[in-house]
Specification:
Blueprint (H helix, E strand, L loop, with lengths): L1 H11 L8 H16 L20 E5 L4 E7 L8 H16 L3 E9 L5 E9 L1
Antiparallel strand pairs: 1-2, 2-4, 3-4
Length: 123
């Protein structure tokens, strides 16, 4: 019984020299743990969905805990306010994570052409 305890203790303290049988057993157990457990345990580490980056998005602090995004109009799709807001949300979330859009306003150039949107968000 004492021999078994000594072997377990030597595995815990990793006292075996490299290339020995016990060293190989420990390394094998570690590799089995790394590659087999994700099939049985949900570690909740799903990769983020890849979305194309917007052509132009500028982030500015609002002074409080809010942010102001300036999003280029070429990146925004939709014609109704709901569609535009959903498009703005899908552009902003890959950059800053989940945010709540407080308000947004279109930005026009001197000729009245839509060039972008200012979006106020809260984290």
């Amino acid at each position: 019984m004492k021999k078994v305890w000594n072997t377990i203790r030597s595995y815990i303290w990793w006292t075996h020299s490299r290339g020995s049988f016990h060293y190989d057993v420990m390394v094998t157990l570690i590799l089995v743990f790394i590659f087999v457990t994700p099939h049985f345990i949900n570690y909740k580490d799903k990769p983020a969905e890849r979305q194309p980056r917007p052509k132009s998005a500028l982030v500015l602090p609002d002074g409080s805990n809010d942010l102001i995004f300036r999003v280029d109009a070429r990146d925004v799709t939709g014609t109704t306010p709901q569609e535009v807001q959903a498009s703005l949300q899908s552009i902003i979330e890959p950059i800053s994570g989940y945010v709540k859009i407080k308000r947004w306003a279109p930005e026009q150039d001197a000729k009245g052409k839509l060039v972008g949107y200012h979006v106020w968000v809260r984290r």
